[in-house]
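Quick one: structure for this chain?
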Amino acid sequence: MNMMQMMQKAQSIQKKLQETQAELEKTEYEASTGGVVAVCDGHGKFKSIKLSKETLNPENPESVDDDTIEMLEDVISTAIKQASEKATAEMESKMKAITGGINIPGLF
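Got it. Here's what it folds into:
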């Protein structure tokens, strides 16, 4: 394989990687357990959480109003997103320290 073929192959791989990353970002994955549904995108980034009335009060689910559920979902979502942002920022900082500030695609 000559240098030109290697460059073309690298460009082809890079294009496929970018397309796959874009596709994953649009894809949502759901998991549920015990009346709680969590949603993440294909990069593992948290998107949302849904709680059931039964989860909050199994003995009397009708006593839980929709506003309470919405408030809890918002508070939990915000906390998860903030923790994720902190972790990402710390990871990026540590990786930049190791790489001397060089941005290596796919590393962070």
